[in-house]
Structure formats: C-alpha cells, structure tokens
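Hi,

I'm pasting everything inline rather than attaching a file, because the server keeps stripping attachments. The sequence lines come first, and each chain or strand is labelled.
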Amino acid sequence: MDEIALLAEERLFTRDLEGHLLRMDRPTFEMLDDSWVTVTIDGRDVRMPLAVPLTDPEGGIRYDEQGRPIPRLTTILDAVAELYGSDPGPVPVLCYREHMTPVAVCRVCLVQVAKREKDGCVGRPDPKLVPACHQPVVEGMVVETMASRQIREGREEMTAGAKRVRKTVRLLVELLSADHLHRGAHPANELEKLAERLEVEEARSSSTTSRFPRHEEFGRPGEPGAACSAPPAGRMNDDSSPWFIIDRTACILCDRCVRGCGEVRGHQVLARAGKGSEARIAFDWGDAMGESSCVRCGECFISCPTDAITMRPGVKPSPWDFEERDGDDVKDISYLGWIGRFLRAREVRR
Amino acid sequence: MIVQRLHEIQERDRYLTRDAMVELADELGVKLRHLHEVASFFPHFRLTEPPASEVLVCRDMACHLNGAPALETELGRRLSGLRPDRVRVDGASCLGQCDRAPAVRVNDRDCSLRDPAEIAGLVKALAEEEVAQRKATPPGQPRGMSALKIPGHGPSSDPSGWRIDIYRGRPTYDVLRNKSDGFSPAAILKVLDDSGLLGTGGPGQRAGKKWAEVLRAPGSRKYVVCNGDESEPGTFKDRELLLHVPHLIIEGMVFGALVVGATQGYVYLRHEYEGPIASMRAAIRDAYEQGVLGRPSAITGKRFDLEVFVSPGGYICGEQTALIEAIEGHRGEPRNRPPELQVKGLHDMPTLLNNVETFAWVPSILADDGIAFLEDGTNGGKGRRFFSVSGDVAEPGVFEVPIGTTLGELIGLAGGLPRGLKAIATSGPSGGFLPRRIPISKLGDGFRAKLSGMNRALAEKVSENAADVDVLDLELDVQVFRALDSPPARVLDSPQGRVGIMLGAGIVVYGEGRDMVDQALNCSRFYRAESCGKCVPCRKGTQRIVEISERLDQARGEAHAFSTNSELASELRSAMAQASICGLGQVASNPLLTAINLFPDDFATPRSPTPEEPPTNG
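And the predicted assembly:
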C-alpha cells in the first residue's frame, strides 16, 4: 500500500538550505553554544541555540562521562517556552515530558509552520500542522500558535493560523475527552484542565450532549476493528497491585508511563500492546500489574497525566511506610528521591 | 530478528505461549514486554491458543460487493454446531485476491473453494484431523503432515504481452551483465531520471531523485528495501509481478544497491502471499547461483545480499516508515517525518525503498536507455504501468497499460461493465469514490488549462461550458489526477466540496444499483481496523468516522441528521488530515466524504437490498 502515503508529501522543513535531506539527529556540543537560529513565533523573533542540554526528571542538566552537558535538538516547544514562559504557555502538551524522548502521539502541541524565504517573504504554510515537541527549530521558521494575534481595523483578533491550530487541537481534545474523561476526574487531571481551557468539557464521557457519544472502548467482539489477537487478560481495569490501580478507560495512550518505566527507570515492564482502537498499556506478557515483574517504583503513576494510574486510597507514601512495606519489591528505588518527586507530583496534580 | 523468530515459534507451537516467549526473551536478551508489544501489534501473531481450524472471509471492497457478508454468515451458520475451540469463522482485511472475490483463507492458506458447503466440509475435516493429531502426538513432538489439501490459486494473469519482462520468463540478468563493465551510477541515474519513472507505490515521486538522494546520503552501511506489502484493498498487481517476474525485481534492486552503495536488501512481502513468497525465494536462490547476489558477485564485483522478510500483517506496514519499524523488530507504527528514509531509514542508515513494480521496471528501462519506455505512453502520458481492476467488471485482473490510457479503455480490458457504472474508486479506498459524471464544480480550479498545457487529450474532451467530466475519459496518469485535484492547498480550507481525487494501482468498479452509503461504511471500517493507534487523530477519528457512517446509514432521508453528521464528518476529516502522523489518517475519511459530496441521493433513499447473488447451493 503506500498509496496511503499519497498525501504525505514532503514537509516544509525536510531539507536544509542547500536542499539536502536532514537527518535531524546527532546534536553536537558546539550546537549548545555556538550555533544559533532565529525563528519567528506569533510575529516575534526568538533566537535559540540549535541544541539545549538534556535534563533529568528533577530538571537538572544531564552530563556525559567527561562532565559535558548532553545536547538534544532544540524544538519549537523550547522556543515557545523561551518567548512565553512554559506554564501554561500557548502550546498545550499531554504526551510531552521534558526529560523523555518526544513521541508526538497526542498531537495537542500542533502548530502551523511556514518558511521565510531569502527575500524575507513568508511562504505558504505547510498543509499539515507539526508537533512542536518534536520538530527541531530551523533558521527562517515562522510559527503560529493558537495565541497568534493580528490587528485588523483597529481590533485585535486571532490570525487564520491561530484559528486553524485551535480548531484542530480543540477537536482532538474533544475526542479524547469523549472517551477518557469521566465524571469526578482528579482536579489535576491534565486532560480535564485542557478540556476546560479549550472549552470542551461538555464532551466528557458522561455527557448527554456530546457530539461524540461514548462508545465501547476496545471494540466489540466480532466487529471489524476488534480484529487484534490480544489476550483478554489485563484489558480493562487492573487492581491487582497493592499500591496502584489501573483504569484503562481513562488512559489516553500518551506513552508517558511507558517511557517512565523504560527510559527513566530502566525497568521495562510497561509497554503499549495491541493495535488501533484496541491499543492499551500492558505489563510484561500482558500480565496483571500485581503479578508482573513491576517493582512498584511509582514512576508510571508520577508520569500519568490522567486518572489511568492512581494510588490506592489509604496508601500513604512516607519513608516509614516504605520501611514497613520494604522487601524485595522496592529494593532498587531511591526512597527519598521518589518521595520528593511523588510529593511534588501531588502538588502539581492538586 | 525478533519477527522471524516469532514466525518460527508460531509455526512450531501454533501460537506464542508465555513459556516460549520467556525463553525467547532470554535468548535474545530483550525484555518480555518488548516481545509482547510487538507480538500483540501484528494480526498474524496469536497470543492465545487458536481453534483447531479457522476460516477467514475477506471483508473489503470487491469482496464486499461479491457476496462476502453472505458467505461469512453462511459459514458461521454451517459451522455453528462446533465448539469455539474447534472452529472459528471470521472476517479479514483485504487478502489481495480481489479478482477472485469473495476471497477465503483456511488455516492461513489461500483457498480457492467458494461453495459454502465445500468450505465448511474442509474446515470441519481439518478440525477433526487436528484434534486427532493432538491426541496422538505428545506436546512438543513434531506433528505428522496433514492428509488434507487446501486448494489454492495460481497466477491469474498471462504475462506474455508484458513489455516489462524483456527476458520472457528466462532470467539471464543480461542488462546487469552489460552494464557492469565500467559501471557508472551517474549514467544509471540519468537514464532513470530521463525516463520519468515514478514511484508506483505511493505519491508518484521521481524514482531517480530518490536513488540520487540515497547515493548522496552519508552512512557506513546502506540498505535497499522492496515494498511488497500490497495490502490496499483492490490492489493485487504486485502479486502477479512477484509470481511471474521476481527476477526483474531482484535485478532492479541490485541496480539500486550498486548505485547507492548498499550491501543488504529485503523484499518485504505480506504473509498472505504464500505463492509470491515462494516464487521470490526461488528467484533469489537462482540469483545466488547465477552469481548476481552474494559475495563476491561474479557479475558486479560487489557484494549484495537479499532476503525475503515476511510481514506479520497489517495494512499500516505498507506505510514505508512503519515497514522499516517492522523489519527492525518493533511495532509497525509510522515514524514522525522528517527525517526521510533516504537519509535515516533501516537501522538509522540511508535506505532506498521502492515498490515492487518500481524496481521491476528498472531492467527494461536500462536495457535501451529508456527509449522504448518513453515512447510507450499515450494521450500525452509517458511510460507504462500496472493496474489491478476488480469489482463489477466482467473479467477482473491485472493489466500492463501505457500511461495515459483512459479509465474506459482499462475497464474494456477487464471485460467491460456487465451491470453498468455507478462509481469508481481509483486508488483503493484511499481516494474515495468518483461518480460516472464528475461535476466540474468539484474539480480543481483551472484544471482544463493545466491539462491542455500538458497536452492531455482530456482537455479536448471537456468543453468550456461542460458541466461535468465523464469518469471513463480520465487518463490513467498521476499528473492528470494531480491537475484535477489542484490547488494542492485544499487541506487548509474546508475540504467540503473538493474531491480527494487520487490515482493508485487498485481500480474498483461499482455497478448501477450499488448503495454508496454501504460502500462508504465498508471502507471506513477497513480504516478503523487498520489504524495502528499510535496518534490520537487517527485512532479516535477512524472510530468516529465509522460511527457517523452508521448513523447516516440508519437515518436515511432525515435531512437534519444528514446535515449535522456531514458537518461533523467534514470537521473530523480536516483535523485528521492536518494532524495525523501518516497518510492513513489523512485519507481514512475520503470514502465517507466523497459519498456525501458526490452521492448525496443515496443518503436520502432507503437502503437498497444488496443486489448480489446468494452463495451457490445451500
């Protein structure tokens, strides 16, 4: 088939100024300090280094064995944060975490990009919107977020680009809310906050006025689309762990828990499984969490932006609790680091 | 490596048991979760014990038109007395047998039987045999060979008139032998470029340009990969090329390897193509014997190794970056682009990826420096290409035609239209449906001027004040279709009213009386089943497009339901097109949107009883 690639023409920033295809990897140490580009965001110019230091979950800079900061490519999102500050900023995120490899799957950070030609004119915008968390900055890039404004006949109004971005992102959030935002969501639920911000709360799954009435998640047996051969074990809710509860109906498949488990902690217990509308998070060979090789480090819980991974009521993480609950299960975690981050995460989630 | 091992284990144990996977994880030094995320992604891999016997009926397009739903129901009825652990009857996504609709697979083999009684009898006998074998053979011991034969198909087309095969079926690799002395990549690239050969799988980019980009890309290793996934409903021309002329594909790939400097190649084939897989493997063995492949090649002086990679299934794997992910042993999910494969492909190395047919054209083009190929077009087109034609035509099949041949002429080759013409899909489901007469108002502005600038005959046939274009007059040429669909910035505006006209290799014909609401629903379900689920717009959007199609189907004739659901579909389409990672999400709404735009009457009339013949004798 790559018939489906028919519309996937080359994107605007696929090539460098000489017309060579970009590999978009291998940031060098020099890029951290010596290579700067100017991009335009919502009409204002921002100068950015081509690379910024990689950070750890606490926000500290990560260094290589020689004590040099490890570079990663600067993205549009970095440039937006430089211009607007990062909280909340005009570009929302769900699947993005600064210390994780961007996967660009939720698409709520989409922005419009165009190219400033050598004569200074701005060309036609890319027909596709690009994920700000994943797209590296390139000299001459002209970005519009949903905050982009123009003055027309003395009145400030959203630009066409801003409207386009907002309309698209809003629909994506509406689709996610319709399936995964339930009544009584935690107030710190990031999807809930985003739904409020984009005014699509009426789309939540319990709503009777939603344009997208709730459907059975994971497909109905025997229906086309339920064609995946996954085992039923661990498909929906999972309360097998003494500490955590998994509610897959609240899961938006942002992959943050998976990267938390694999990339950040190195345990590699959690992964995405299944395909299409049947895709879900799973432990080991689709095992129940409590029967898997999970060490209960809590990274998945800290990483989860929704109510898909929550702590059991009554479980109070404190160093003393850990001592009492100690055992092989939790031997490889740094208690204090975990507690600190857990409490911070709670702060954030409140 | 992972995918090949999973294939072997499933072949041995019938499914992937947890114990075998724990062992494999240990052997390969990977985590269990990795095997699970990969195995659970691909439809071919089974994670639970399968029934003793299994029959699948294709659901898509031509099969849907030709009695597949009735056949599946009938088989279910006939086999309903058996326990679910004995027999399973199910639907499947396009099996690449659209010219033999409705396509059937029994126990992972193509099955040529069409009579429900015969199929049910075979499936029952296979189940009984399997149960008996299970009792007789202790677990872990090799099973005896089955005494029952599942009758399959051979090739359907006659290649004797194909100009692509300069060897007339006897592969001597003469072009390669002739060009090996003083081999010049630049000269090869020039011929390819001058010939205007376009990629025949996807967007129709110039093949020579892609080759030059991989040549120029720096990399310690390079790869050549042939996309033979061919899972687009209505498309089966690569199947015939693989069966008849695998040597041309190999020779084209060797030329690719010599030009870009690659040492390893893969032919990626869908697992349902057991015939083409066998034929390609035999041709590869022969090429090794002739010294075309392997080290050191007696002919080229360079090393190039080539093997078949059997896909574990899924339409999405035809998306080129998803295909690369699958070869690497990952979930077949498309990558965010850029970077492009030409600079960062398989194992992050520069990779030349072309469709089966693109590689297969290379030898005949290089044989005479592209002269015959260039002269071969018609109506202003240049070159030749293959099309698969299926649906409501008298003799569905695969045809090699000059580029610029009209749709009407192609349908003539396929035996004509026994039940008249209501609609044509010109790119499998991806471009949606075109009506017999396409209103000018739905076409790109200024297409007439563009066509006459390109010297296309169609420009003459459409007069200044014509209200519509006869779909049978459309010339089978990517450039003509692009002109009809311009301006290209359509995605920016509301797509309402603009047809997503596309030309692929799969032409599916719908006769008079076919219900386009039903067809739109059918194609929308295909995309839902085949979405990989990676990005939100496609995972959620394909589901909602199906629901909207179902609502429109239920609420026929209700003007309010039609307008609200059409608007919602249009809004979804716009978001899916702009936000999805790959092309699947971009085109998934085309069948529904073109049905709404071009066949609105079908939504206003009650569902017509399916005008199809019931399966033969009950």
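Residues 1-8, 217-235, 319-336 of chain A have pLDDT under 50 and may be disordered.

If the labels don't parse on your end, tell me and I'll reformat.
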